[in-house]
């Protein structure tokens, strides 16, 4: 694959090396971190880097094992089997990425467990097939520990099957590179946005679940690159998405006003 086809990813540390080692050793990887900090981009980058087809599933509370493995579909009176994304990834020897895996229904662990230990197999109950995952196959899951509550967490028996990487908002030099590259703005503007992001994240005492993500800083940069006045761009990208509370919004706007 040409380098230009590889999605841009600015590393924060040795995560690319850890991931490549895990893949070579056929170990599954768990990525934890807040929303919009680069988890999905990292996985897309690594899949392209390693030359693996990528099958991404955004998990939700209705997602079942059948959604991952596949199901029989009825078309024109015929019944035919249709592989789900996990099965497709196993057959193709690719990378299956389950985003926000803790949201998925508990029955999904039944199919994930035999794939994440040294058996590396996927039993397809409905067809009676048992697939042996080829060496290229890798399972990667992510979740946001900030959203956790007691009912939505990974059981130790599941999480202890993964090599785990912790992601967080990148340090300023790294985030500046991301905002510059992804937002299409110059380094000076990128720095101002990153500084502002840091200040917004420090805003305590308000009903903010999470601070402004790197993704939102990129949005603000893109709106500015498209010609939107800086203050308005920050308001719609860095204040409004974070809260509905008038007091909190006023506090966010006050911080924005100190930078733009
Ligand atoms: P997550 O999966 O953690 O919610 P994403 O990977 O979708 O977050 O990141 C959101 C956006 O932020 C990406 O589309 C990209 O523009 C940008 N981004 C964040 N971190 C990085 C990074 N380290 N390198 C490149 N882009 C990044």
UniProtKB/TrEMBL annotation:
Domain CbbQ/NirQ/NorQ C-terminal stretches: 175-258
Protein name: Nitric oxide reductase NorQ protein
Presence of the UniProt keyword GTP-binding in the record: no
Keyword set, alphabetical order: ATP-binding, Nucleotide-binding
UniProt GO MF annotations: ATP binding; ATP hydrolysis activity
Domain named ATPase dynein-related AAA: residues: 28-162
Keyword ATP-binding appears in the UniProt entry: yes
InterPro entries: ATPase_dyneun-rel_AAA, CbbQ/NirQ/NorQ/GpvN, CbbQ_C, P-loop_NTPase
Family as reported in the entry's similarity comment: Belongs to the CbbQ/NirQ/NorQ/GpvN family.
């Amino acid at each position: 694959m040409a380098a230009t086809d590889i999605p841009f990813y600015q590393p924060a540390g040795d995560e690319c090396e850890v991931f490549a080692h895990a893949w070579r050793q056929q170990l599954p990887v768990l990525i934890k971190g807040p929303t919009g900090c680069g988890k999905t981009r990292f996985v897309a980058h690594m899949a392209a880097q390693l030359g693996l087809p990528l099958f991404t599933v955004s998990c939700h509370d209705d997602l079942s094992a059948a959604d991952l493995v596949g199901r029989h579909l009825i078309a024109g009176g015929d019944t035919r089997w249709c592989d789900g994304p996990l099965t497709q990834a196993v057959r193709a020897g690719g990378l299956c990425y389950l985003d926000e895996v803790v949201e998925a229904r508990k029955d999904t662990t039944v199919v994930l467990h035999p794939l994440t230990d040294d058996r590396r197999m996927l039993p397809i109950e409905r067809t009676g097939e048992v697939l042996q995952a080829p060496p290229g196959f890798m399972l990667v899951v992510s979740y946001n520990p900030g959203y956790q509550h007691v009912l939505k967490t990974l059981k130790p028996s599941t999480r202890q099957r993964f090599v785990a990487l912790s992601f967080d908002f990148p340090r300023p030099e790294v985030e500046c590179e991301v905002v510059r590259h992804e937002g299409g703005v110059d380094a000076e503007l990128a720095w101002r946005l990153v500084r502002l992001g840091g200040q917004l994240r420090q805003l305590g005492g308000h009903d903010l679940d999470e601070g402004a993500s790197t993704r939102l800083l990129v949005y603000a940069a893109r709106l500015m690159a498209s010609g939107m006045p800086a203050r308005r761009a920050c308001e719609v990208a860095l204040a409004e998405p974070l809260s509905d509370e008038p007091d909190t919004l006023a506090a966010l706007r006050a911080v924005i006003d100190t930078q733009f």
